[in-house]
Specification:
636 residues; alpha+beta; Neuraminidase; Rossmann fold; eight-stranded mixed beta sheet; 36 strands; 15% helix
Length: 636
């Protein structure tokens, strides 16, 4: 067998094309058992990012929701819970274009509107419960800058929505008791985010509305996802001990009791509506996600016994639906993101329903290595994906370039599973370090609260510490470290480049550049987010100015690739354009890519392909290695 000739890191020939990576990156948006079938939502990249609803038929995938209809909610701007269905095959969905709720009957040629066309009124978090269709409504026609939100029941005959309860800035996770007499839900108010402080509320339905309610849990903690176990008892997730665990309570006000407590989280940040971290089985058992770095699936017996279930997805794990002992799971594993059907009594027979497939073999997917580096604020958790290629070898003594990935949120989380995007780089000889900096979920409240008042400090220090730690152990070339992130991750990229010389290149996707502009321009869901991350305005205005990269663009001397959606309402294009203009004025090498029709997060196939190829070409141009197979990038 001939030994391959050494090839520099970054220039390895790879079969992973940007088009294939884009096509293989399934974005599952909910799933349901519908009669004997499984339906799932999926973002269809080659249809302009349309959010479709699909099912299997005779071994093929067919669209339940035909084009051009698109099931996508804009409640909180991040949406979630945009569709549901009953066992007869009736689909209920939020249409992206008008945010109304529509009904598509089985066999019907066209949907029927269930909510009126009344301006900017949005719906999300749809769920069918005991024959009733519940939703979160967000009304932007109040005549003020602040929308009103409530939980509504939507009449299935199209006679309109009826408000069940309001009285707080935000609501989520409505749960109707089996006898229809009580409603449980999660509520929180500005300036808090749901993962800082929320309440589990329970109230009796009197004349179709909740007239009186009580707080069953929360206030100093962050309860999530109430589920009724009987007409007078329920389970929910909460973190009064510092970890999201399951608890039991009842409508009589009994103090909550823990269910199989663990040093792991069953719960997470409520960025989108409809996420489920556990589900109740009909025999009294509970199937639940537990997160401590990566995700694990467990089965909890009524007596408290815990059984680990070996499943493929290890991150982004969500329990979409249950039927008997069968469970629909979405998440990401070694083969990428997808949807699986498992039986909790026979988990080895799991069946892949959608996604998690690629035209490449497993030998191209890097194995994650969980690492913990020492930082100035405590330990920093990350996952290392080294260059991975079945045949290529680098010249002796050469160390690989690395890209440090910074997730958004900033209260988000990454787990130990390689994506097609990661493999696109590692198969070419470029390592990836995916960092869960302080503020990330998945490690408990104390780790999450490390970021309070310290955004732009702790996150920056942590990604720098992780990158330097990797270089110091000899795994990465310290002179070829890049940093990449989107949204809040883009903020950390810009802050790191203005505050440090650790990184030789940066990639900012719709990144926050000016805190005052963000506070003034952002949407209501995050309007007070910065109060906790930085400080309240106007008292903390000086700190906003000092922390913002736009205040220090004279120090920005690192080559930068900027990517921006022109329809972004979370981080408007003006922020990226200001960075671009400063780079041009400073004479710093850069490129600015703007995309029509893209909002906060890219969905279109052509955008995903363009950005993947541009990022690879940019890294090669800056770090001096060839990037065969992708167009060259012009730097200003």
């Amino acid at each position: 067998m001939t030994t391959p000739a050494p090839t520099p890191y970054g220039s390895w020939t790879s079969p992973l094309t940007a088009a294939e990576v884009s096509a293989s990156s399934a974005r599952i948006e909910g799933a349901r058992f519908v009669g004997e079938n499984v339906w799932w939502g999926e973002s269809i990249a080659d249809e302009g990012g349309r959010s479709g609803v699909r099912r299997e038929a005779s071994g093929a995938v067919v669209d339940v929701l035909p084009a051009p209809w698109s099931a996508r909610s804009r409640v909180h701007e991040y949406g979630g819970g945009s569709w549901t269905a009953d066992d007869a095959g009736t689909l209920y969905f939020v249409e992206k274009a008008d945010q109304r709720v529509w009904r598509l009957d089985a066999g019907a040629e066209a949907p029927v509107a269930l909510t009126p066309d009344g301006g900017d009124v949005r719906f999300g978090g749809l769920s069918l419960q005991h024959g009733r269709l519940l939703a979160v409504r967000e009304d932007h026609t109040t005549g003020t800058d602040v929308p009103a939100r409530d939980i509504v029941q939507i009449a299935l005959d199209g006679s309109g929505p009826v408000s069940l309860v309001a009285g707080s800035d935000f609501v989520a996770h409505p749960a109707l008791s089996p006898d229809g007499a009580h409603l449980a839900w999660i509520a929180w108010d500005h300036p808090h985010m749901a993962w800082d402080s929320a309440e589990l509320r329970v109230g009796a339905l009197d004349g179709g509305r909740v007239a009186v309610w009580r707080t069953a849990a929360g206030g100093a903690s962050s309860p999530l996802q109430p589920e009724w176990t009987a007409a007078d008892a329920l389970v929910f997730a909460d973190d009064p001990t510092g970890r999201w665990n399951l608890w039991r309570t009842d409508i009589g006000g009994t103090s909550p009791m823990p269910v199989a407590p663990a040093d792991a989280d069953t719960g997470g940040a409520v960025w989108v509506l409809g996420t489920r971290w556990y589900a109740l089985l009909s025999d009294g058992r509970i199937v639940a996600v537990r997160t401590n770095g990566s995700d694990a699936l467990v089965l909890l017996d009524p007596d408290g016994a815990v059984h680990a279930l070996d499943v493929e997805p290890v991150t982004q794990l969500s329990i979409e639906d249950v039927r008997g002992t069968r469970v629909l799971l979405s998440g990401a594993g070694a083969r990428g993101a997808g949807l699986w059907l498992i039986d909790v009594d026979a988990p080895d027979d799991a069946r892949l329903i959608a996604g998690a497939s690629s035209p490449w073999g497993d030998e191209w997917m890097p194995l994650p290595r969980a690492v913990t580096m020492s930082g100035p604020h405590g330990p920093v958790h990350a996952f290392d994906y080294p260059p991975t290629h079945p045949d290529a070898v680098a010249p002796e003594g050469e160390r690989p370039p690395y890209v440090v990935f910074v997730h958004g949120g900033p209260t988000s989380h990454v787990g130990g599973a390689a994506s097609g995007k990661i493999a696109y780089l590692t198969s070419r000889g470029i390592g990836v370090l995916d960092v869960n900096y302080g503020g990330s979920t998945g490690y408990g409240r104390a780790y999450r609260e490390r970021l309070l008042g310290q955004w732009g400090v702790v996150d920056v220090d942590d990604v720098i510490a992780a990158a330097r730690g990797l270089a110091e152990e000899g795994a990465a070339d310290p002179d070829r470290l890049a940093i990449a992130g989107g949204s809040a991750g883009g903020w950390t990229v810009l802050c790191a480049l203005t505050d440090s010389d650790t990184f030789g290149a940066g990639i900012s996707r719709y990144g926050v550049a000016d805190l005052r502009l963000l506070a003034a321009d952002t949407h209501d869901f995050e309007a007070r987010y910065l109060d906790g991350l930085v400080g309240p305005l106007p008292e903390a205005e000086e700190l906003y100015v000092e922390r913002s990269p736009l205040s220090h663009l004279d120090r920005l001397r690192t080559p930068l690739l900027i990517e921006q959606g022109l329809d972004d309402r979370v981080v408007p294009p003006s922020q990226s354009e200001a960075v671009r203009d400063a780079l041009a004025a400073n004479g710093v090498a850069h490129a600015y890519l703007a995309f029509e029709g893209e909002a906060h997060g890219f969905r279109r196939a052509e955008t995903l392909i363009t950005t993947l190829e541009a990022e690879l070409a940019f890294l090669g141009r800056v770090f001096g290695f060839q990037t065969p197979g992708v167009p060259e990038i012009d730097l200003g």
